[in-house]
Prior knowledge:
Oligomer: single chain
Largest sheet: 6 strands, mixed
Shape: globular
Number of strands: 13
Distance between the termini: 78 Å
Amino acid sequence: MNELVKQLSEEQANEVKRQMGIYKQGVQDIIPMEDLEKKVTKSILENRPLKIKLGLDPSAPDVHLGHTVVLKKMRQFQENGHIIQLLIGDFTGKIGDPTGKSVARKPLTDEEVKHNAKTYFEQFGKVMDMDKIELHYNSTWLSKLNFEDVIQLAGKITVARLMERDDFEERTAQGKPISLHEFFYPVMQGYDSVVLECDIELGGTDQHFNILMGRHFQEKSGKDKQVALLMPLLEGLDGVEKMSKSKKNYIGIDEKPEEMYGKSMSIPDELMTKYFDLVTDFTPERLNIIKKEIISGKLHPRDAKMLLAKTIVRMYHDAEAAEKAEEHFKNVFQRKQLPDQIDEVLWRGEQQVLIINLLVELKLMSSKSEARRMVDNGGIQVNSQKILDPAAIVQLANETIIQVGKRKFVKIVFDS
């Protein structure tokens, strides 16, 4: 490394320092750090872009703010002229990533993979320049491996090494089965890095083991080892679990501005600085000012959250939409006014209906038990009146307004 540094001009040395400062910002772990600096230095000396890999197992195509933590880091590499390799795991997706799973994942069909991949790309365009990426599908090479190839690949890794994965270790301790094909997921992900000859692979900290497999198999294949760049996981709106659609604690980047703003206002106070760090486009200097003002009390938590919400909406819609979303929030939640626009639902049923049946019929709740819990928790209003009895019978009239929680409104209209 010292020999490489000696070859740098002052301008090149400053460029290495600048890029390293960007890449380290907000990162949880870089394995190993010295290799990243070495790769960046060689890239600048040789005027050769680095290959940056992001693997996608398209099983949940709705992109939320949690996904953008990694995407924003990819964009930083892209803005510095490096090659972005988006890898769609259309082959590995048929197995399903067992990471963090207590049972085997249901394999995806070809149709599901293609649909989910298309949805990913449409949404990724809000974060990265999709015209400047390399797109790969790992079925291109994995489907061509014969059984002898697979045996040779499996011979490059020990069972003991695979069992180091936390989820495999936990399932074994609990007596839960592990299918043989699940062992091949990290093996195939590692082989992807061999084929793509990538320099750096990005992912969340939950992908630690899988990404290190790339280093392992590249070394076994006589290639330069990739650097693992691991981003922190973003907690969802509950403040506990990782942001996830299945946990219903997410903010989707395709959601309506008002919904996005309203959800952002429910981010726990203690997570605000982390959200500012990981999901906004503020400069490091601006972020430092915001953090200091929050800590000192100069910036009230409510005002900080409104700034965060407005910024998120502006990033994924535009400044005008952000202004309107903020005004909508103030009217509905601070001034207790009804929103200007409420979705209308044509009603042809009985005018007297059990409240929990009504909520399910309107698809505001997925089940009667969920509707009952929402009523018990005081989360249902009919024409601005709280309904506290799950057995209540509601008398419907034309333009009756049903409110669920703080942000969901429906107006019932009769067939004229």
